[in-house]
Amino acid sequence: MLHTEPSFSVYADEEGLINIEKVDLKVEKGSDEFTFAKNLSEFDKLAIIVGKEEDEDVVDDYKKMVDQDPSNPVFLKNYAHLLQSNGDLDGAEEYYFRATQADPKDGESLMQYAKLVWELHHDQDRALGYFEAAVLAAPEDSNIHAAYASFMWEIDEDDNENNETSPVEESLEMDEKCCDPLVLRNHAQFLRQTKGDLAGAEEYYLRALQADPADGEVASQCAQLAWELHHDKDKASDYFGQALAAAPTDSHVLAAYAKFLWEAEDEDQHPDKL
Q1: What is the spatial distance between Cα 130 and Cα 100, in angstroms, rounded to a whole number?
Q2: Which spans of this chain does the record mark as coiled coil (predicted)?
């Protein structure tokens, strides 16, 4: 016997993306039969596309989907895209931000949020932080790199000063008054992973930790850099203690601490390796 499963293929366009015009979003109560609208959260891996000329019913249907599954990054991103297509940039900004919170590794959402932060508020530091996070999340995405390059050229034109630094270098010189822990953390991560600038990364991780002492991941990064750059066992231990107090079940923090303990113990037993 052939095995059959429910499929959205009959509703897909040539690229395999679902057109919401063809999907019945009305939930049928009291029925045991499968319907495409029965539980859309089962299809949260699918991207749903909406054209710019959809009516208000479609917007309402999308809002219901988001309300029913408010932590679904796909629903949040698609709803943000719909709002943006309809010209509601403030609403799009809100839902792209929620999408980045639901899935911090979604480069597309990070990029779209960065673009709106720049377009709506001209907040260079915050936009830069999210662009850098987008590049880290999707390093091979040409659209993200193009948007990031465009942003850097724009801020270079805005400044329009005769500096010896390049647009890229200039964009990395963040405002010393910035105290947004997420922006500072993203910038530190960018400096470490993309630029290989460990000293610069340490500076911004320390600023991020000062802005949010309860961020265990940032405290762990400070500890790792204290050990890697300065071989300061006491300072690294202090930062790891802070990290474990803030995030006692974080697997990344625990793994980094275990690695540090192993290296420190090995060094104590074999001082000739120094």
Answers
A1: 9
A2: none
Amino acid at 97: F
**DSSP per residue, the chain:** --------GGGB-TTS-EEGGGS-----TT--S--TTS-GGGGTTS-EE--TT--HHHHHHHHHHHHHSTT-HHHHHHHHHHHHHTT-HHHHHHHHHHHHHH-TT-HHHHHHHHHHHHHHH--HHHHHHHHHHHHHH-TT-HHHHHHHHHHHHHHHHHH----SS-HHHHHTS--TT---HHHHHHHHHHIIIII--HHHHHHHHHHHHHH-TT-HHHHHHHHHHHHHHH--HHHHHHHHHHHHHH-TT-HHHHHHHHHHHHHHHHHHH-GGG-
Q: Classify the C-alpha dihedral 152-174-169-99 as positive or negative.
A: negative
49-90 per-position pLDDT tens digit: 444 444 577 888 889 999 999 999 999 999 999 999 999 999
How far apart CA 233 and CA 258 sit, in angstroms, is 14
Give the distance between the most distant pair of CA atoms in the chain.
74
Q: Which residue has the tokens 């850097």?
A: 152
d(CA 188, CA 222): 10
The four Cα atoms 24, 27, 30, 35 give a dihedral, to 10 degrees, of 40
Q: Hunting for tokens 């991560």 — which residue is that? A: 189
Please, what are the domains in the chain? 43-157 (1.25.40.10), 178-273 (1.25.40.10)
Amino acid making up residue 96: Y
